[in-house]
Design brief:
single chain, 340 residues, alpha/beta, Nucleotidyltransferase, domain 5, five-stranded mixed beta sheet, 11 helices, 10 strands, 44% helix, 19% strand, binds 5'-O-[(R)-(carboxyoxy)(hydroxy)phosphoryl]adenosine, binds zinc ion
């Protein structure tokens, strides 16, 4: 049997400072997350400068905790994995500089990880049987993509958003109905009390690009609906708005994912990213996959939103594929999927 591979993974692309120790890409020995959400809530969104400063303050502590919880020292590790893009440049740089410093001091190999490929790889952690190829819907605060995971670390994008990401639409609508940041989980909760059929918000389909998305239309429709209610001095039923908006988004996400899986002849579907923890999306995707004889995978909510365990999972397959970063590894804020 091969020797175990232990990776220390670091994630600091947005507002979570996170470190994890992952064994053989699928077994999480520790997963420490220091969230800055409370801090950014004061401003209604992530403030990049504050995020970077907070990462610097927390990163050593988070790494020490991750090693301690896993019961390992730096000497036991085989590699360091770190998110180097996409994300906020100042935030990414904190993790990248830290990973490079550890790699330099310990001579451990360094592996640069794409944040979104990390989200996809979160599915490997709890589903030991999941292997490529599969269709993956990635829905986060900054990204909405449909990708074919062809092999470990090999991706083909078949659909993308033309404007807002799904999570971004959730956050903007939440702000409009006074729910605050981050809006996704708040809309998820409030929608449970509302009628998803109360208001007919649009479902965007794009001519000639059946697997692409657009969420700016539904977002504008919600804002217009709120404005027109205010003008008519009608009271807004926020739960109905939340439920109807969510239904419009979920309908599109599910129908396109199923259609794409069928079109490309894939019988396994996975979802990933912060919005993948949405209860309505999980339920609707479960029902649709059952109906269409597709096998569905999704991570537990803690592995859907930003964390370093998913970075450790992705780093493992990169490491096995021979990927090594040098000490010149830099943060790439607009890194594309599959780009090296
Ligand atoms: O993946 P993530 O943690 O960070 C990015 O890489 O962007 O995703 C954050 C996004 C936010 O827009 C947040 O509102 C959304 O995921 N989100 C949700 C839920 N939990 C987080 N959206 C809908 N329902 C949820 N339960
Ligand atoms: Zn993310």
């Amino acid at each position: 049997m091969d020797k175990d591979t232990l990776i220390l993974a670091i994630e600091s692309s947005c507002d979570e400072t996170a470190a994890a120790v992952v064994k053989n890409g699928r077994e999480v020995l520790s997963n420490v997350i220091s969230s800055q959400i409370a801090l950014h809530t004061l401003y209604g969104g992530v403030v990049p400068e504050i995020a970077s400063r907070k990462h610097i303050e927390k990163i050593n502590q988070v790494i020490e905790e991750a090693l301690k919880e896993a019961g390992v020292t730096l000497k036991d590790l085989d590699a360091i994995g770190v998110t180097y893009g996409p994300g906020l440049v100042g935030a990414l740089l904190v993790g990248v500089a830290e990973a490079k410093a550890i790699s330099y001091a310990t001579k451990l190999p360094l592996v640069g990880v794409h944040h979104i490929e990390g989200h996809v790889s979160a599915n490997y952690i709890e589903h030991k049987e999941l292997e490529p190829p599969f269709m993956c819907l990635i829905v986060s605060g900054g990204h909405t993509h449909l990708v074919i995971v062809k092999e470990y670390g090999k991706y083909e994008i078949v659909g993308r958003t033309h404007d807002d990401a799904a999570g971004e639409a959730y956050d903007k609508v939440a702000r409009a109905i006074g729910l605050g940041y981050p809006g996704g989980p708040k809309i998820d909760k409030l929608a449970k009390e509302g009628n998803p059929k109360a208001i007919a918000f649009p479902r965007a389909h794009i001519d000639g690009a059946p697997f692409d998305f657009s969420f700016s239309g539904v977002k504008s429709a919600v804002l217009n609906y709120i404005n027109s209610c205010e003008m008519k001095q009608e009271e807004i039923n926020r739960a109905d708005v939340a439920a109807s908006f969510q239904q419009a988004v979920v309908d599109v996400l599910v129908s396109k994912t199923i259609a794409a899986a069928k079109e490309y002849g894939l019988d396994q579907v996975a979802i990933a990213g912060g919005v993948a923890s949405n209860s309505a999306l999980r339920q609707a995707m479960t029902d649709a996959c059952e109906k269409n004889n597709l096998k569905l995978f999704y991570p537990s909510p803690i592995y859907c939103t930003d964390n370093a365990a998913m970075i450790g999972a992705a780093a493992y397959y990169e490491y096995k594929n021979g990927a090594r970063a040098g000490l010149d590894l830099n943060a790439v804020p607009n890194l594309k999927i599959g780009q090296r």
